[in-house]
Prior knowledge:
Blueprint (H helix, E strand, L loop, with lengths): L1 H9 L2 E2 L6 E2 L3 E2 L2 E6 L2 E4 H10 L7 E5 L12 E5 H6 L4 H6 L15 E4 L2 E4 H19 L5
Amino acid sequence: MAEIWEARFWAKVDKSGDCWVWTACKCKGYGQFSIDGRRWKAHRLAYLLVHDNLPGPSLQLDHLCRNRACVNPDHLEAVTRRENILRGVSEPAINATKADCKRGHPFTAGNTIWRNGRRACRACKNLWARNKDANLRLAALGVLG
């Protein structure tokens, strides 16, 4: 029975280039394939067919070629979710590569605050706190409306 869906699966793959491109149904760029009513991501199924197993639950398959429609197992690497995100082009990935905050203060060990997995600039936080205190004093004196 497995041979039937395997043949059906590989018939939907264009292997003419370096990337093996999924030519059938896609969702958000990732190939989709159904077996007995269960939907699989095509790249995960290709990895399973070639390697006889999937990476553990704490790992994801990263497309090294950056092509979501690619199902070439040689283009897939098992990595942590964090590593997969940081390799991408999302906002968290872009921010992780920044060496300075938006006001130009460097993200050094002494100037970086970590809150809920996000980094913030200590110099900017201190400036904000000083301005807040000054505005509160001025409001108490009736200077600010």
